[in-house]
Amino acid sequence: MYGNNKDRKCTDSSGPPIAIRYMKENLNRAIDCDLMTSLQIEAGNMVRCTQTADRKEAVKAFMEKRSPDFKGQ
User: What is the pLDDT of residues 28-56, one digit of tens each?
Assistant: First the structure.
């Protein structure tokens, strides 16, 4: 129905690159890890995302009702 997920690629370059990188890492590790390990890795990556300048930019852009300008920082 949806095709092979391995063939899908994230091509939206306007998104937050750090968060996208962590999402890809989470998905790739989930194939080989048990559930608890995957959840621990994902939780750590989520915390790291909240500490980026891109997260601050996303919140600021939301409050200002504009599109964010992500820098990958």
Answer: 988 888 999 999 999 999 999 999 999 99
Q: Which CATH architecture has domain 15-63?
A: Orthogonal Bundle (1.10)
Q: What is the DSSP string of 7-72?
A: G-----TTS-HHHHHHHHHHHHHHHHS-HHHHHHHHHHHHHHHHTSHHHHHHHHHHHTTS------
Tokens 């980026």 correspond to 52
Q: Where are the domains of the chain?
A: 15-63
Predicted model pTM = 0.69
